[in-house]
C-alpha cells in the first residue's frame, strides 16, 4: 500500500503534531560506526542536531522530541501557522533568506542584505508563499535533509542518495498518543542497546533536557536574524580577500549569533502553562525557537521519572507496577496502565505502519473527519487504551 499524500496527513494552515522518521539509504550506518568498514561517522549526529537547532530558530515549527540514531532519525514536530501569522513581512523575509538565499553562498561569500529583504517584501505573492512554507513540516524536513546529504557526499567524495527517500510521517491526534510517541522516541537508543538508561541517550531530546537541568550550555546554532546593510556587504566583497571571507563564514557558521544557550533552549518547553489559553500563540522572542508553548500536561520531573521507569522494563514478561502517582497520570489520558510498557517498547507492533496515532476513539473520529473508514493500527492499538 502506498504512503498517503502529505496533504492528506497534515496542512500548513492548521496546527498539527507529526512524528517524522527519516532513514539513511539502504539503512546504512551513515551516522554511526559502519559495521562493515568500521569507519566511525558518529560525528554526523552533531551535524544533524545543530541543523535542527538552526532551523528551529527560523521556521514556525516547534521541535518537541527527537532522537538521532546511526541510520535514521525521529522527530516530533508541531507546525505553528498562528505564530507565523504574528511575524512581520520583514521577519518572514529574513528568516526565509537565511535558509534559502536564492544564490550559491560559496560563490558570492555574502549573506542576505537589507536590499534582498526589501526585494522579497515587495513581492507580495512570493512572500505569501514563503510565509506558508515556513510553517510547513515538509519544507522543514527538506531544509534539514538536503544540506546533510550534501555535506556527507562532499566528505566522502561521492554522489547519490544519503537518505532512502521521502520521510515517513504519522499524525498524532491526542495527548495519549503524544506522550507515548514522545517516550518511544526518547527511548530509541535504549531499545537499540546503545545506552542502558536515558542518562546515556545522547542526541535525544530527553538527554538535552536533563543536561539543561544541570545547567549545561552549548554554542547556539540559531541563525542571526539581522540582515547585513547593503553598502557594508558590497564593501566587504570588494575589499576583503576571498579566503578571509570564507574563514569568517566558517567561524560564523559555528556560532552565528555569538551566544551560548542552555542545551534544550531550542526545544519546545515540555509542560503547557495552565493559565494560558489554547488559542494564544505564545510567540518566542529570544531567537532560538518559534514559540514558548509546551506540549504535555506533565512536569519535567514526572516525565523523567516515567521515562526512567519505562527504560528499566526492558525484559519481556517481567511485570512491575507503575508508581501510583504516574499511574494516575496515564489513566487520566485513557491509557491502560498495565499495557504502558507494551505500548512504548513495542510501538512498531501497534503503530509502525499507521499514518495516525492516538486512542482508538480519536483515530475513528479523525478518520470520519477526513473521509476514511478507519486507520491502520486502530484495532490493534485498542488493547493499550482503557
Automatic annotation (TrEMBL):
SUPFAM superfamilies: Transposase IS200-like. Coiled coil: none annotated. Gene3D superfamilies: Transposase IS200-like. GO terms for biological process: DNA transposition. One of its GO terms (molecular function) is DNA binding. Residues 367-386 are annotated as: Disordered. InterPro entries: Transposase_17_sf (IPR036515). This is Transposase IS200-like domain-containing protein. It comes from Neorhodopirellula pilleata.
Amino acid at each position: 500500500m502506498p504512503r498517503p499524500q502529505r496533504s492528506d496527513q497534515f496542512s500548513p494552515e492548521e496546527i498539527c503534531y507529526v512524528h517524522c522518521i527519516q532513514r539513511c539509504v539502504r539503512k546504512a550506518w551513515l551516522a554511526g560506526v559502519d559495521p562493515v568498514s568500521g569507519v566511525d561517522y558518529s560525528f554526523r549526529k552533531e551535524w544533524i542536531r545543530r541543523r535542527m537547532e538552526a532551523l528551529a530558530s527560523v521556521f514556525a515549527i516547534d521541535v518537541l522530541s527527537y532522537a538521532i540514531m546511526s541510520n535514521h532519525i525521529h522527530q516530533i514536530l508541531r507546525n505553528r501557522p498562528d505564530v507565523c501569522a504574528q511575524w512581520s513581512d520583514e521577519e518572514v523575509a529574513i528568516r526565509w533568506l537565511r535558509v534559502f538565499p536564492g544564490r550559491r553562498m560559496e560563490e558570492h561569500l555574502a549573506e542576505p542584505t537589507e536590499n534582498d529583504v526589501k526585494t522579497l517584501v515587495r513581492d507580495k505573492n512570493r512572500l505569501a508563499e514563503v510565509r506558508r512554507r515556513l510553517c510547513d513540516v515538509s519544507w522543514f524536513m527538506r531544509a534539514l535533509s538536503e544540506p546533510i546529504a550534501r555535506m556527507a557526499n562532499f566528505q566522502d567524495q561521492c554522489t547519490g542518495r544519503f537518505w532512502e527517500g521521502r520521510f515517513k510521517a504519522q499524525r498524532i491526534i491526542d495527548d495519549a498518543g503524544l506522550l507515548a510517541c514522545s517516550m518511544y522516541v526518547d527511548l530509541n537508543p535504549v531499545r537499540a542497546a546503545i545506552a542502558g538508561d536515558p542518562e546515556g541517550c545522547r542526541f535525544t531530546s530527553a538527554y538535552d533536557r536533563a543536561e539543561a537541568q544541570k545547567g549545561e550550555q552549548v554554542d547556539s546554532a540559531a541563525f542571526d536574524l539581522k540582515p547585513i546593510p547593503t553598502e557594508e556587504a558590497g564593501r566587504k566583497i570588494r575589499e576583503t580577500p576571498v579566503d578571509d571571507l570564507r574563514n569568517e563564514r566558517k567561524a560564523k557558521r559555528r556560532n552565528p549569533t555569538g551566544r551560548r544557550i542552555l542545551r534544550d533552549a531550542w526545544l519546545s518547553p515540555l509542560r503547557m502553562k495552565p493559565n494560558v489559553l489554547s488559542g494564544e500563540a505564545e510567540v518566542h522572542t529570544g531567537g532560538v525557537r518559534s514559540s514558548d508553548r509546551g506540549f504535555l500536561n506533565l512536569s519535567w520531573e514526572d516525565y523523567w521519572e516515567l521515562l526512567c521507569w519505562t527504560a528499566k522494563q526492558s525484559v519481556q514478561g517481567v511485570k512491575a507496577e507503575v508508581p501510583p502517582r504516574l499511574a494516575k497520570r496515564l489513566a487520566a489520558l485513557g491509557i491502560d496502565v498495565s499495557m504502558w510498557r507494551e505500548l512504548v517498547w513495542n510501538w512498531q507492533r501497534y503503530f509502525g505502519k499507521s499514518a495516525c496515532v492516538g486512542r482508538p476513539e480519536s483515530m475513528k473520529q479523525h478518520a470520519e473527519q477526513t473521509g476514511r473508514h478507519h486507520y491502520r493500527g486502530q484495532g490493534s492499538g485498542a488493547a493499550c487504551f482503557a
